[in-house]
Design a protein that fits this description.
With 88 residues, this protein is of the alpha+beta class. It is built from two helices and six strands, in the order βββαβββα. A hairpin with a 4-residue loop joins strand 5 and strand 6.
């Protein structure tokens, strides 16, 4: 039997596969701004903000950086809830 992929809603109808998420970070610090610019220059940046303010950066195991307009804490809670449901 194949296992269903667990998707994390990152806002505005966009979702990512939970198992691919390495970290969810606040975009405000200088290192995170550099990470964002490096990803943009290397064509690894995915903007899922729909024109809204970026409130979190999601780093994946493929080294892509995804911008989300959802707060870091909210995304973390959503991810934890998905993991708790899958353990049950």
């Amino acid at each position: 039997m194949t296992e269903r992929l667990k998707l994390l809603n990152i806002g505005f109808g966009n979702s990512i596969v939970c198992t691919r998420v390495v970290s969810i970070v606040n975009p405000g610090s200088s290192p995170m701004r550099r990470l964002r610019e490096d990803a943009r220059n290397d064509h690894r940046l995915i903007d899922a903000t729909q024109g809204r303010k970026t409130r979190s950066l999601i780093i994946t195991d493929s080294n892509h950086v995804i911008l989300s307009a959802i707060q870091t804490e909210t995304l973390t809670q959503r991810l934890e809830n998905i993991e708790l449901k899958s353990d049950a």
